[in-house]
Specification:
Layout lengths: L1 E4 L2 E8 L4 E6 L10 H5 L6 E5 L16 H14 L4 E7 L1 H11 L5 E7 L11 H9 L4 H11 L6 H13 L2 H9 L17 E6 L7 H7 L8 E5 L6 H4 L1 H11 L2
Parallel strand pairs: 3-4, 3-5, 5-6, 6-7, 7-8
Antiparallel strand pairs: 1-2, 2-4
Helix pairs in contact: 2-3, 5-6
Length: 255
C-alpha cells in the first residue's frame, strides 16, 4: 500500500491489527521488508507498520536538501495518516537515528523505543575511504554481496542475501548519496535528552559496522535510563540474523 505523505508516496507494508502498533524503521540501503520475520512473530498481538523510508525500497526518491529531521517529519505524518494512537518505535541502524529524533519530539501516543545497532546521534564514525568506496559502488552486485557478508556475524539464508542485495540496488542514488554524505554525518545529540519513554538497545557482539563500543559511548552514555542487550554471534543485520531475539525483546517492552 502507498500513502501520500507531503509531496511523496511512501510504500508501507502492514500485518496484524489492534489499537496498538509497532512502527519499524529500516537500515540504510534496506526497506520495510527487512522486518518480515520479526513482524510475523508479533502480528498476533499488535499492528505492525513497516514503511520503506523515502528514497528506499518502493517509496519515492528524496527531495533536495533532505535531512534526518525531514525523515522524522515523514514518519510522524505517516503515523497520523494511519490513525495510530498508541505506538512503539523500532529503529535499526539509519532508522535508529531517525527514531531518536522522532522520540525526542515526544509525539502523542509514543510509549516505547527500541534501537537495533543504531546509527549514533553524533556523526557516524565511517572512515573517509569507506564512504568513498560506498559512494562509488552502490550499483555493484558483487560489492553488495561482499558488504552483506561483512555485515553479518553468521550466514544468512540465500533468499535473505538476495533480498539485502536487491534492496541496496533499488535504493535511489539520491538517497544513497544523502545518507553517506550528509544524514549519517548529522549531529542530533542535543535533542535526545528530551526522550522520556523507556528505551531498549540491541547490539550484535560481532558488529563491525556500528560496534558495541560506539553504541556504549555515543548512545548509552546520552540515554542513562536506556538498557542494552548484547546478542552473541550476531553482526549488524539483527532483524535478519536474530529475528526471534529481536521479536522477544519487543514483546518484553509490552506496549
Amino acid at each position: 500500500m502507498k500513502y501520500r505523505i507531503g509531496d511523496a508516496l511512501l510504500h508501507v507494508t502492514e500485518c496484524g491489527r489492534g489499537p496498538k502498533a509497532w512502527v519499524f524503521l529500516h537500515y540504510f540501503g534496506g526497506s520495510g521488508r527487512a522486518w518480515g520475520q520479526v513482524s510475523a512473530l508479533l502480528a498476533d498481538r499488535w499492528r505492525c507498520v513497516m514503511p520503506d523510508l523515502r528514497g528506499f525500497g518502493s517509496s519515492d526518491a528524496i527531495m533536495d536538501s533532505y535531512s534526518v529531521n525531514d525523515a522524522a517529519d515523514e514518519v510522524l505524518a505517516l503515523v497520523r495518516a494511519l490513525a495510530i494512537e498508541r505506538f512503539g518505535l523500532v529503529g535499526h541502524s539509519m532508522g535508529g537515528k531517525i527514531a531518536l529524533v522522532v522520540a525526542a519530539r515526544k509525539p502523542p501516543g509514543l510509549s516505547r523505543l527500541v534501537l537495533l545497532a543504531p546509527s549514533p546521534p553524533t556523526p557516524e564514525p565511517i572512515a573517509a575511504s569507506e564512504r568513498a568506496c560506498l559512494l562509488a559502488c552502490q550499483t555493484s552486485r558483487a560489492a553488495a554481496r561482499r558488504a552483506t557478508r561483512k555485515s553479518c556475524g553468521q550466514p544468512l539464508l540465500a533468499a535473505l542475501v538476495r533480498q539485502v542485495i536487491d534492496d541496496r540496488l533499488r535504493t535511489s542514488p539520491a538517497a544513497w548519496r544523502w545518507w553517506l554524505a550528509s544524514g549519517s554525518c548529522e549531529s542530533v545529540q542535543n535533542r535526545i535528552a528530551q526522550i522520556s519513554v523507556p528505551v531498549q538497545v540491541l547490539s550484535g557482539a560481532l558488529d563491525t559496522n556500528i560496534p558495541t563500543a560506539v553504541i556504549e559511548r555515543e548512545v548509552m552514555a546520552r540515554l542513562p535510563l536506556a538498557r542494552m542487550r548484547l546478542l552473541p554471534s550476531c553482526g549488524h543485520l539483527l532483524p535478519l540474523e536474530a529475528p526471534q531475539a529481536v521479536a522477544q525483546t519487543i514483546r518484553d517492552m509490552a506496549l
